[in-house]
Amino acid sequence: MGCSGSRENFVPEMQRLCYDMSPLTDAKLPIIWLIGAPGTGRDTQAAILEDFYSFDVLKISSLLKQHATNETDRGRVIKENFMKKNKLIPDTIVIDIIKEEILSRTAWANGFVLNGFPRNANQADMFVKEACDVDVILYLTCKVPTMVSRSLFKSDSNRLVDVKVEIALYNKHLAQGIKKYSAKIEKFDTTKDSPDIIFPKIQSAIDVRVFPDGNKKDNTNVHNIIDEN
């Protein structure tokens, strides 16, 4: 498992490793993809999910930034791509980093939330083929003007055109990436509702799809997390 990739994502100077993903499949841990363009509130909901369910949240962009500081072939490839305008990291690298991170935590994890994954169809297909299937896809949507406003506020930037282009490209690639997995998608519009209104809807979706036996946790710390974000 984990030794193949598309020609578009082939990195000739690097040899991909093979990963034994059986510890993950044997553990039968919940796998959740948390997706949505910048400004939809992914990070806030990820923090609530981590606190409420004790899931391990893997923020993909943060993992890539960490590896970009390593003096390795992989680190240099990531760093070079970050310096480019499109900032597109080869999908093979993204998938391998995620697999390594998951395997390092599987022994004590309660489940995984992949925050900001997948970004395209190839990443989605590679993960399912090389790692495991996904239980539920939490898709946060929002009206574009609201996403732009939130993104500009968060980044303290005036680059309106760049933000609009980034969101448009993100949504385009995301739509293609999850089209094949429509049966797993739970969609939530975050345009008007606050995080504390959105999360109970997310909780209900997870409880039905991941915990159908009704084994739910008590919602004790959600408001603290929301206040902090």
Automatic annotation (TrEMBL):
One Pfam family of this chain: ADK
Gene: LOC108560673
N-terminal signal peptide: none
Protein name: Adenylate kinase-like
Protein family according to the UniProt entry: Belongs to the adenylate kinase family.
SUPFAM superfamilies, per the entry: P-loop containing nucleoside triphosphate hydrolases
Organism, as annotated: Nicrophorus vespilloides
Keywords: Kinase, Nucleotide-binding, Transferase
